Amino acid sequence: MLSVLLNEISQLNKNDRTEVGKLIHQLDADNKVIPMIESSLDEKNHCPHCGGENYIKHGFAHGLQRYYCSACKKTFNTLTGTPLARLRHKDNWLEYLGTLCNSQTIRSAAQQVGISIPTSFRWRHRFLELISENRPEILTGIIEADETYFLYSEKGNKKVSEARPARKRGGKAKQRGLSKEHVCVLVARDRTGNTTDFMVGRGNISASSVEKYLEPSLDKDAFLISDKNHAYKKFSRENNVTHIGLKSGMPDKYNSAYHIQNINSYHSRLKGWMQRFNGVATKYLDHYLGWQRTLDQFKNLTPEQLLFSSVGVYQHLT
Ligand SMILES: [Zn+2]
Known about the structure:
Elements: H1 2-10, H2 14-44, E1 55-61, E2 64-69, E3 75-76, H3 93-101, H4 106-113, H5 117-131, E4 142-151, H6 158-163, E5 182-190, E6 195-202, H7 207-214, E7 223-227, H8 230-238, E8 242-246, H9 261-274, H10 285-297, H11 303-310
Parallel strand pairs: 4-7, 7-8
Antiparallel strand pairs: 1-2, 2-3, 4-5, 5-6
Helix pairs in contact: 3-4, 3-11, 4-5, 5-10, 5-11, 7-8
The structure holds zinc ion (ZN).
């Protein structure tokens, strides 16, 4: 049987051999991805509807084990309630996640995986939804904080782009300096490399946004270093956080450990990395921030790691 099959394959033309290769690849990919998805339930260990921990196996659906929860009487599988529920073609998922590891554009990912551009767009944001929420729980010791800005963009918002001409790619703000045309992103990084960031809104940063977004991530012994921006000073005073505001963001003259160079270089890596996407719609900016943050935190990131993150099973730096 096998020898007949192999003989027949050897006589196929190049295109048909490619098709056979694709089929084998798909079967291998299915065999690989489904057990990984299934194992993520071991980590979560509860019913996504009610949080109950008593459930039993209850048949199969969409290639996945289905469970029945004895508390709420509902069925679920390991993807229920995640952004990947009902996403099709699981055999392509790991290859698609590989395009995220390689920072590919939507178009290039679509070409490589053999899916349409709208599908590539939809998949990108389904996968990134939980990946982008994987932040370190706590920053400790010396913590550098600084904000960076992106132009507000409604790219991809059809109603608006029909109503008025889109800004040219990589456009410039109409007003000089900071304004409501800018979206403020607050970034903080401790000296172990743990990094967190938040889209805090339009225009200048304020003490109340530092409090809202950064305060929950600060260890009680945190030592905050920023530039002279008044927002950090006011926040630190009101929240009893030890703080140094460096003049012009330059390293302290007397203590070389007091600087914000790690955060400045993070900002430039982020900006450089974003350029390939030719301007990102503000409503998706947090996905891109989380994507870059994940790439920066986990060297040699694998599609398998990203698959777990995309269903909310996170690894952390230790
Ligand atoms: Zn339940």
